[in-house]
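Follow-up to my post from last week.
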Amino acid sequence: MTAPRSAALVGNPNAGKSALFNALTGARQKIANYPGVTVERKAGRLVLPGGDAVELTDLPGSYGLNATSPDEEVTRRVILGELPGESAPDVLVLVLDAANLEQHLVFAQEVIALGRPSVVALNMVDLAERDGLVIDHLALEQALGVPVVPTVAVRRRGLAELTAAIAAAGERESDPHLAHVTMTERRVTAQAIADAAIVSETARHRLHAKLDKLFLHPWLGPLILFALLFVVFQAVFAGATPFADALEAGIGALTDLVRSSLPPSLARDLLTEGVLSGVGSVVVFLPQIVILFFFILVMEASGYMARAAFLMDRLMAGVGLSGRSFIPLLSSFACAIPGIMATRSITDPKDRLTTILIAPLMTCSARLPVYAVIIAAFIPNRPVLPGVGLQGLVLLGLYVFGIVAAMLVALVLRRSVTKGAASGFIMELPKYQMPRPGDLLIALWQRAWIFLRRAGTIIFMVTVVLWILLNFPRAGEGENQVDASIAGRIANGLAVVVEPIGFNRDIALSLIPAMAAREVAVSSLATSYAVGAGDDEEQQAKALGERLAADWSLPTALAFLAWFVFAPQCMSTIAVTRRETNGWKWPGFMLAYLFALAYVFAGLTYWTAVWLGL
Amino acid sequence: MAAAAMMTLDLLPIGQPARIVAVDWALLAEEEALRLQALGVDAGAKVCVAYRGIFAGRDPIALSVGRMTVALRRAHARAMRVEPIAP
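User reply:
Got it. Predicted complex:
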C-alpha cells in the first residue's frame, strides 16, 4: 500500500479544525488562495510515522455538500475533486465536535458515503467531558465504518494516533445507496448513532448558557458590545503609539545612517527620500493593525463574534443587511481587504455584494496617517469638554461620518442596484472557548506578514516610481524641481479638475500615488515638499505639518479630510473586489460612486467653510 | 390544544420548550431552507427560544436546538408551526 500524499481536514464550522490543523502542522503553513477564488487555502506539512510527509489542507467549515456560500462551494469542489488545478485529497480527515455529535454526524455521513479513504477525529473530547458527555468512540467507529480517533487539539492529545490512522487509511467501497438519502434521513441516523455512542450524559453546557445570559442580555448585551468596541479602538489608537513611535525612530535612525555612510548622490536620495520615507511611513502602522487583528481574532476564537453579529443584526436589518455583515465591516476598520475577504461567509449574494461595496467607507487604518497630519496641523488642540479635546472630537467625527455614509449608501444600494428580497440571518452561535495563545500568535503573524509583504512590494514600487517621476527631468538653474518634473506636470493638469473643490497642486500630486495605498498621500506630500525644498536647510527642517499649515487654507484642509472619508483610491481594494465579484463591473461601480461622493462632499465642505469665513 | 398547535415559532415565549411540527418551506428562500435544515432546524426538532434581540420587533431570535444555539430571524420562525411540550 502506498502512503497518502495529501489529506484534508473537513468538518462543520466550529469543530476545532484550525486548532487541530495548527497542532498537526505547527507554525509552518502556506497560505494562498484557491485558483480563481479568494477563499484562503491553508496548507501545511504533516510527517507520517513511516517518515513520509503529506500535504495537509484545512478546508473551510461546511454544513454539507450542498453549498450555500462561496466558502462551502470550495470545500465541496475540493472534496469531489472538481476544482481545476487542485486534485482531490487522498485522505479526508473528518473533524467532529464531540460535544455536538448528533449535529456534526450529519455532514460526516454525507462525506463518508462518498467512499473516499476517511478518518474521523473526534475532537474536543475534553470539553464534551466537561459538559458531562462520555462517548464510546469504538461504538462510533462501528457505526460509521471508518476509524475514529479521540483528540484534544489544544492539548495535543491523540495526535499520534490520528497521524497513524491517516497513514493507514485505505480505499473503501462507496455505498451507492447511502449517497441518496435525504438530509432528514441523515439527521435521524445521526441522532441514532450519537445516542448509541453516548455512554452517559449529565449536566449540559452550563458555562455556555451563563455567558450567553450576560452577553445576549436584552440591554446589558449591547452595552457590553459597545464598551468592548470602545476598548478596542482605544487600544488601537493609544496602545499602538509607543510601538509606532519606536518604529518611526528606528526608521529615522536608519535614514541618518544611510545619509552619513553614503556619499551624496541620486541613489542615496532614492534610498532616503523614496524607499525609507515612503515604505517607512506605511510600516509605522503595523502595531495598529496587529492590535486590531488581535481583538478581532480573540473575538472570533472565543465565540463572541457570533454574539456581536446577533446583537447587531437588528440595526443592520434597518439598512437591508444582516448581522453577518458586521464582522467584515469591523475588520474593515483595520483594512478593507481582509474585510472584503471576510464577506465570503455571507450566504446571500446581494447582501455580500452590498457589504463589499460599503466596506471601503469604514475608516481603515491607512487613512489614519492622513487624518492625523491634517488634524494636527489645522485643528487647534483645545478642550471642548473636560477630557475631550477638539482634535479627538474631529477624528471621531470623521469615523462616524464614514459609518453613517456607509449605512446610507447600503440603504440606497439595497433599493436600487442590489435590490432583492430582504436578507436573512441564520447562523450558529458556537460554544464559548478560551482562545489558545499559540493559535492566536500564528494567526497574528500571518496577518502581519501579509501586511508587510504588501508594504515591501506594491508600496515600495509606487514610492520608487513616484520619486523617479518627481526627480526627472532635472530642474534647470533657479527652477523648482517639482514644477519641472513629470509628476509635477501631470499634477498641474489634474489640478484644473480638483480646483473647484479647493484642492491645490500639491494635493493633486499626492492623490495619484495614493491610488496604491491611501497612506501614501502623506508620504508623497512629504516627498514632494522634501524634493521641492531642495537644499534649503531651513525649509527641509520644517515638519510636514508646519508646511501644510503655512501653505493650505483651512477650507482646503477640511475638504481634504472630507475627500478621505470616501477616499476611493486604493488599488488593492479595487483588485480584491474584482476577484471577489468575478469581473470589472462592481469594482468599476465602486470606484465611480466613491469618486463621485468624495468630489461632492469635498466640494460641499470647501464651499461651506469658505461661506462661513473659516 | 388546538390553539397551541396553531402557534408559530416566532410567538413562542422565551424558555418554553416546543417541538417543530411542520415547516412551510415555501415561505423561505431555498438557501435559507437548506441552511436551517443543515443546522437542525427542521420538522421534529425540539427547540427552545433562548434569547431575543432588544430592538423593535425583538428580532433576531436565538434558538436552542439540541446542543446548539442557532440565530435566526422572526421571518424564518414564522414559517414554523410548533407545539409546546413539557420541559
